[in-house]
Structure formats: structure tokens, C-alpha cells
Amino acid sequence: MNHDQRIKPVPKPYVGKSVPDKSVEKRQKRARRGPFSSLGRRIMAINLFSVIFLAGGILYLDQFRDGLIEARFQALTINGRMIAGALGEAALQEISLDGKVQYLTLDSLPIKRILRRLSIVTNTPALLFDREGVLIADSRRLISAGRNIVFEELPPPEIKSPVRIFFEELYDGWEKLFPTNNDYPLFPTNPIPTGKDFQEIGEAINGDNGRMIRQTQKGELILSVSVPVQGFKHILGGLLLAESGNSIDDAVRAAQVTTLIVFSVTLVITLLLSLFLARTIAAPIHLLAEAADKVRRGIGRRMVIPDFSERKDEIGDLSTSFRAMTMALYDRLDAIEAFAADVAHELKNPLTSLGTAVQAFERVKDEAIREKLRVVIASDVKRLDRLITDISAASRLDAELSRAEGEAVDLKKLIAGVVDTYQTTQMFTSIKFEMRVPEEEISVNGLPGRLSQVLRNLIDNAISFSPEKGHVVIGLEDQGKFVQLSVEDQGPGIPENKLEAIFNRFYTERPKAEGFGRHSGLGLSISRLIVEAHGGTITARNLLDNAGNVAGAKFSIKLPN
């Protein structure tokens, strides 16, 4: 391990309660409310807000009402002009043939007959006033005094569905809760009205068209239009057409009832869809939250996270991620337990040896034997120190790799720098180093310090197993999607049944000439951990000569390009 590269210490885990139990229990109780949880209420509120807002805007039908009133005013004005033109032509028939202008009057029997006939045709009551505002004729009285009886078939009764009848009764009951608005002046109730009762008649006598909206004591609308009656460009009087606004109220009422029906149906459908949406979203999330809480509280047990991967949506992705995270957490806990067991086992051997040597040292009086025991005690202490140092580095390595951010690493420069260091430090030995690298630059994304640590571990192993005047070959090859980094030696090789076991923690397979306890057996395990953190793989195999005999070992590292 490179002791020059500083590793940030990992904060110690909190060994007390991970979260306040009372707050967690309160949160869990709030979370188990099914579709009426906080999330469910938000979904329903958002969906219902737009429906209620739309219904409120539609029920406010002033523009629709104003449009109907304007249309009726235009129709009354057209009818009034037609009737006033006919009355003016009838008044001109009283002129003598010599062409002299006589006094024109509207108070004649032919004019009243015309007024009666046109009022029947247009189905609009009409009142005729002279220039002084005196009532000349009332079509309602003229029609009642006529000789013709008009028969009209009544339309068939309207067949309404029970749903519409229910909503009409509901609407009428709602309307009764609000008093009638007296927004317009009252319609005159004099038996014989005059022009003073209708201000629009004054506008007609002055030559302008007039219009007015009034209402009865019961709140029914009355629309009136006044038109001047002219003859020889002289204004002879004013014509007033009045019409009940019940048809307008009925049309507005029908539109409001229809809107109420549509709104109610839409509200029910939206509510059901919101409940369904809340259940399909909130319920799985609640199950995942409860499973996560069980994982938090479960000690020594493996909790199964619900599998919603068949949903093919974000909740399915969340379930898959939760399951993968939980499995990784359990694997990490198993690895920690195994690591702790391995550490305890590895520390027990030197401690036992040390304890035995100390006890023997106290009883033995022979200085030669005591000197040998001192050597054993010193060796065991060094071995313990080495083990503790390597264990500490290995335990912090995983956390450091998860926090660090990679960068572009030039492997040619990295290999050259490491090999140059070994050539300098090994200049008085017979070991030769050889680099087999391409001319072009090869880069990978990673941590240069950790990758150089892996390379040093492999080279250290190669040196320890190499014979006198042996060669250590460091190779680099671009294989397209992967970059292969290899270290070869000319040692005795690796037992075939140990090619995978050598990467296990605390496993050592050292040369016989090397002293016992000089290595902790964590070098290759740390190397594999670093390589896998970079998304690569590390393997080992034996090299064979032409005769099929083992000629050395080769470690290969593949990193994504």
C-alpha cells in the first residue's frame, strides 16, 4: 500500500438509535391511511380542483344570458321596424289626391287592424302611442276584439329522464335559497299606460330606437323595444314591442341544469379515477415504506421487499431499485461479518503465539532460549502491527472508493512511473523489468493512486516469486471496449486449484524461502476490490513453456475503455 497517499478517515457509525423511534412511529401511522393518505388527498385535490373550477366558470352564465337578451332585442327591433313601416304607409293613405299635406294621424281603424294583424304574425304584443304619448292602440285588446279565432296545436309534452328531473328539482331547491335580485326597474302595471311610463317611447318620438329591460314583481324579465313611426319624414308616434323573458330564463336554466348533470358525472368519474390513481400509487409506496422499516428493525433476518417490477413504471423501477439496494445491503453486511470473522481468526494466531512466548519467557531462565523467545515476541508484534495496518486500510478502502470521483488516467505514464520506481529501488538485484506498451496513448477513467496501488501489489508478488535473474513483464493492450493490463513473472506459478482462492482475504501462498508472517494476505483481495470498483475484472493463470511445464504466473486486469 502506498503510505504517501492519504486516505480521509471515515466517520464512525452512530451506534445508538438510528432514528428517533417516536417520530418514526408517528410517521408510520400517518403513512398507513391507504388512499386517504397525504399523497392520496393531494391527488384528489389536484384532480377535483380543475373540475370544480371549470364548473364554477360554466355555471356563471352571464355572458350566455346577455347573448340571448341581445339576440331577442335585435329580433324585436327588426319586427318593430317592419310594423312601424307598415303603420307609416297606412297613415299616408289618408292624404288627398291633390298632393297637399294634411294632418296625418295614426288614430284610425285601418291602422289598428294592421297593428292587430302584424302582432298576431310576429306573436309580439305591441303598443302604439301618438306624439303626445297618448296610447292609441294595444294589440292585446285588439286581438281579443277580433273576429278571427286562431287554433294552434299544443306541442307534445316533453319526456324527461329521471336523472334530469332529479337535477332540475335540485337546481330549483338551490335557487330558492337565494332571493330574487331586483336588478331592473318594474314593468308598469297601469291599465291604460302612457308614454311617460316608458322612457323608450320618448326616444322613439324623438326619432331614435330605444330598448329597455324590466322585470315583474315575481322577477320575470320583460324586454321592450321602441321604434318611431314616420310618414313623409314626419314622426307620427312611437311603437313599443314588449316580450316576456321567460324563454331566456328557461334557456339559461336548461343550460345550467345540463352543466350540473355533466359536472356531477365528471365529478364522480374524477373522484373514482383519483381514488384508483391514489391506490395504485400510494398503496405500493406504503408497502415499500413498511418493508424498508422492517429492514431497519430486522436484526439477523432477511426481509423481502415487495416486487412491483411487472408494473413497468416508475414504481416498478423504485421496487427494483429497493430490492437491489436491500440485497446489496445484506451482501455488504454478510461481507462485514465475514471480514470480522476473518480478522478475528487472523489476529488470534499471532496473539496465541505471543501469549505462549510471553508465558514461556517468564519461566525460562536460559538466556539463549530467552533470546529466541524475544525474537518470536518481536516477530509476532510486527505481524500484529502489519495485520492491523492492512485491516484498517482494507476497511476504509470501500468507503473511499464510493466517495471518490474518477479522472482520466494515462496508463502508459502510470506504468512508466511505477516501473521506474522499482528499477531505482531494485538496482542492486538481478530482477529485470520489461514494459510492453503500445505507442498510442491509452486512458481510462479512474483513480490513479488506487490503480498504481494495484500495479505495485502485482509487481511485489512477481518479484517475491521470481528466481535470480528473472524477468517481470508489464504489458498494456487496447482490446476495443476494454484495456488489458498484465504482469508476468517467471516463478513457480500458482496451484491450479488456487487460481481463484488467492484473491480471498488473508490467503497467502508464499515462497518457502520467505519468512513466515511477512504478508497479511490482503494485497490481492484489496487489488480485486479496487479493480471491481472501476468496473473491471482481475484474473490469474499460469504460463506454460513449449514442453507444457509451468513457466510462471500472469495476472490480467481488464478495465472498461
CATH homologous superfamily (4th level) name of the largest domain: PAS domain
Q: Tell me about the biggest sheet? A: 5 strands, antiparallel
Strand order of the largest sheet: 2-1-5-4-3
CATH architecture of the largest domain: 2-Layer Sandwich
Please report the total strand number as a whole number. Answer: 12
- Count of helical regions: 13
Calculate the terminal CA-CA distance, rounded to whole Å.
Answer: 25 Å
Helix content percent band:
40-55%
- At the first level of CATH, the class of the largest domain is Alpha Beta
CA radius of gyration is 52 Å
| Proportion of residues in β-strands | 5-15%
Task: Give the oligomeric state of the chains in this entry, treating copies of one chain as homo and distinct chains as hetero.
Answer: single chain
Mean pLDDT: 77
Would you kindly provide a written description of the structure presented here, covering whatever features stand out?
The chain has 561 residues and is an alpha+beta fold. It has three domains: 76-149 and 158-244, PAS domain (Beta-Lactamase), CATH 3.30.450; 304-403, Signal transduction histidine kinase, dimerisation/phosphotransfer (DHp) domain (Helix Hairpins); 405-561, 2-Layer Sandwich (Heat Shock Protein 90), CATH 3.30.565. Helix content is 52%, strand content 15%. It has 13 helices and twelve strands. Helix 2 packs antiparallel against helix 8. The longest helix is centred in the middle third of the chain and has 52 residues, at 246-297. It is rod-shaped and about 160 Å long. The two termini are 25 Å apart. The model is unreliable at 1-35 and 513-518 (pLDDT under 50).
